[in-house]
Predict the 3D structure of the following.
Amino acid sequence: MLALEDLKVHFDVSRRRRERLVVKAVDGVTLRLRKGEAFGLVGESGSGKSTIGKAALHLVPITGGRLVIAGEDLTRLDRAAEKKLRRTAQMIFQDPHSALNPRMTIMRSVAEPLVLHTAIRGAALTSRVAELLEIVGLSRQFLYRYPHELSGGQKQRVCIARAIALEPALLILDEPTSALDVSVQSQILEFLKKLQADLGLTYLFISHNLAVVRYLCRRVAVMYLGVIVEEGETEAVFENPRHPYTQALLKAVPYPQAVQPDRGPPLQGDIPSPVDLPPGCRFHQRCPAAIPGVCDIVVPPEVRSGDTMVRCHLFTAADPGH
């Protein structure tokens, strides 16, 4: 359903003409999502997760690489191809409060993609919007309400209704529950799982919440500073993480029990600047298992085995320097 091949998204943030500063938000990412699956993308803030989602929908310009959705190369778009993309793939954003126009009724917000892309009008349009609201668990009485009259969970349901209005095959969900209360998060996750089963949707689920990804996604990729460092079946990655960064992320997950397990020292330091990337492995400055003279010099290659991938010198062949 979705294939990213060596995708690059770089932003020029130079303030002076003589000094060129480039943020390498996504720097050579290859991912493939199968039709009908839920695929998780996790990592710290600033790792480039949201940029991948936006690049897939051409909400930010692509610097290099290739983007294929439903078998069509959409790396470069004309107006017709862009309109077709909007019908094939949609995005649900992190903050439902800012995703809805406060001056538009729920009816107008949900109807907007139908007005732009279909010929449905009048009573048929009202009926279709009411049907969409019913799918997400909201009654017709919400049609003429404004966003400020809704709770956070209700707003997110409206955003979901708008996203599925054109019956897309792919949904990109960018932290869709992080702005909601914990109890509401649970409701939305249950609904998203049921919605995927009912409509046969493909999900790219972007989150820093590992528990949410483990619950919803069958496969997961771990991202650090613009690159994928580990990928595989969710249960396999969570039960036996191979990359030191994945191990650190899982150790940082809070436990509800009063007695905490011995998980060793927490990850030290902050994620480096994407403007000034470290040489070699991008994680070596924070990695407790870094190999001097190797990890700080040589970029680790991908080591693939079936559906799993890890980018770490600890798993390269006999000589880790080659």
